Amino acid sequence: MKPPKQKTMDLTQVYQIKVTLKGSRPPIWRRLQVPGDITLAKLHRILQVAMGWFDSHLHQFKIGRAYYGIPDKELFSNFFSDTKDEKRFKLQQLPLREKSKFVYEYDFGDSWEHEILVEKILPREEGQHYPCCLKGKGACPPEDVGGIWGYADLLEALSDPQHPDREDMLEWVGGEFDPGAFDLDEVNRNFKRIR
Length: 195
Hints:
eight-stranded mixed β-sheet; Structural Genomics Hypothetical 15.5 Kd Protein In mrcA-pckA Intergenic Region, Chain A; single chain
């Protein structure tokens, strides 16, 4: 008779992070819990879902003095790029501890910079699905709006019924846009599709 299988304990830590879109007024942010054993490539996918972006632009992480992302193979092979491959680095391998901050930049044209604060490093909770979003505020700005300054112009036009660009802007965003909208349940439902 075989001995019963021992239940192995998952020692993966969970990083509780607060992601804030830099320059947004009022602040647009998300509080997430993510496993420490995910790569930065997977963290990128998680951030896209959490913030509401569509992953149609380039991105990078800046942690300390190092850049992580998708290295340009042509430049990389000629040693002109110092971007480290995000697929090769797990969150828990990086020099991060509680209260550490790093930057996630999405869309180099619009330059959406997100400050990521490591709030806590916690043990994994049994039965909890990760990643998970605990809280958040504010709608994600529309893609290709022109960065934080273009977003401010959009909000100004939409808030003033007499603004000369209001109708064009409304049409551009699809008829309506609520800058305060954030659906926690939808984010968590979409997280369950991430592999």
